[in-house]
Amino acid sequence: MRNYIHVISLLVVNAKVQDHISAFVLLNLVVNMLRVLAKLHICKLTRESHGYHHCCCSLLCCFRTVSSLTDPVERIPFEKLETIDYHSIKFHQLRQILQECTSAGDLLSGMSVHTHLVKLNINGSIMIWNKLLSLYLKFGDIHYAHQLFDTMPQRDVVTFNTIISASVRDDYDAFELLHLFSKMKKEDVKPNHITFSALIGACNGLIALRLREVFHAHTVHCGLSSNAFVGSSLVDGYAKQMRLEDAIRAFGEIIELDLVSWNILIDGCVRNNCKEHAVRMFLQMLKGNVRFDGFTLTSIIKTCSKPGDLKHGMQLHGCAIKLDLAHETPIHNSLITMYSKCEKGMESPLKIFGNISEPNIISWTAMISGFVQNEQSEEAHGFYKEMLRSGVRENDFSLSSILPVYGNLAKLDQGKQIHARVIKSWFGLDLSVNNALIDMYSKCGSLEDAHLVFMKMEKHDVVSCTTMIMSYGQHGKGKEALEILSEMESEGLVPDGVTFLGCLYACSHGGLVEEGVRVFKTMTEVHKLNPKQEHFACVVDMLGRAGRLNEAESFIDEMGIESDVLVWEALLGACRLHGEMELGEKSAQKIMELRPEGHGPYILLANIYAERGSWEDKEVLREKLVSHGLKKQLGCSWVPLERMPC
Length: 646
Hints:
Blueprint: H1 2-15, H2 20-42, H3 46-67, H4 91-104, H5 107-120, H6 126-138, H7 142-151, H8 157-169, H9 174-186, H10 193-201, H11 209-221, H12 228-240, H13 244-253, H14 259-271, H15 275-287, H16 294-301, H17 310-322, H18 329-342, H19 347-354, H20 361-373, H21 377-389, H22 396-408, H23 412-424, H24 431-443, H25 447-456, H26 462-474, H27 478-490, H28 497-510, H29 513-526, H30 533-545, H31 549-559, H32 565-578, H33 581-594, H34 600-612, H35 615-627
Helix pairs in contact: 1-3, 2-3, 2-5, 3-5, 4-5, 4-6, 6-7, 6-8, 7-8, 8-9, 8-10, 10-11, 10-12, 12-13, 12-14, 13-14, 14-15, 14-16, 16-17, 16-18, 17-18, 18-19, 18-20, 20-21, 20-22, 21-22, 22-23, 22-24, 23-24, 24-25, 24-26, 25-26, 26-27, 26-28, 27-28, 28-29, 28-30, 29-30, 30-31, 30-32, ...
């Protein structure tokens, strides 16, 4: 052992490496040598002893080769050195060593080979350098990998593909990837399908979206747009941009379609809410004798999202059972979501959940969301507690799903407890979680907490601002809601129809009639949004609350919405508020014609008669209500009760 250490010391001195990088690498080689010697000293089996002896001999051989360079290296070792005759070097041995280092996770030995390559100034065998690059990337050292890439004597398409793919995984900016691509073109290295697949997949930021079209043009120029890898990346990218037509065109360019290509297109159709097209693509795939898998079924089951789709969803469930795919957890999760949306109640989702051997966080979240959608908030709360007891930790989706429960139940204290868990789990930076917190606090009556969450958010989206606007509207603060709208536009966010609906609602409950009319005109004339019946009803309600009933009736006539039951209900409510009997009778008659099964117009009109002292008319109306088999539904309210002492 002592002789070995003496030999190592002499070799290090004779190497005369002056720069700190090579010295560090060589020092790691020494440490690795000592580690091998220590293992050799304590090993007991003959086979292990032979293996460590062989390793020692290999390392000593590397040392002798390095120490044979008697001239001191005064310059940076990555610069071009004097050419050495390296034809005698066994490149396949170095490649094998690097491959073994990568497989075994031995970075120190790989760095030793790096030192060997630097000292010998080996410019050939680019495969060795590529394997060395892969070694550094496996250990996540992207910065040192880029240094190695910049100083490599040669680079080929494998080199560029390796560094580009690693940069994509490390979330490098798309323009930095474009720089790598430009460097590749300057060095006359021809990109292949792997290059473009990685580059196209990295164009997800708002600024980089146009780059996808640039890379698409390059694929056409290189004749690679018909490749399955490249075409699938383009389909996925355009679908994420909500450009389904471009995605379908890119799909049509693929010559040899495989299952992955079909899956990406079907999932893209579902993501773009083109469910009929997704089903057509699924049927076309089956006609082409392409056997679908669990991912295909998971995507196509998402097209079933309303009660009318239940039969179709049950057929897909049968396909999963028939092809022995029903045991897959992702399919179970999609079936839970499907039955929750298409079927009343949670009986079927509970059965499916019970058949999952190991439910994951997606399974629990799907169940919680299903309970919320079916207005079973108490059950959702109990399921959430069971999830925590089972040891499953929340993620951003589960937290966003459970928070509305406490808003629906008006349980502010429990909602604050979930907020505390959000802060501890670092999901407080997530947009969807913050939006759910704003909505929860607003429904619980704590507008101050909702505003505090909104102000502490690092950035807002359209949902954040819309939720805050709706919160102000529910509390009759119209001016504050319009201020949020102004801030939203100053931040570059484009309001949608739901945002303007919230503003109109806030103006209606805040008594801001003129401002509400301006908001409506801005929506239709500036943003070119087509108003829906809810927008019209809000305007009528706003005018009616202000006592401008004739203007509200004229608005209905001018907009040509006489067949819209919502606007007449809003006008009837305003007539009830101001005791306007004649217009109230007209509104009630319209509602009875458009919705004969509803009891609302009878009750409101009867109340108008009672306030005006027309008791006979009220009695006649009550009798008419009974004769039509209608009955007033009983109202209910949530009242928090303090726990009584036993």
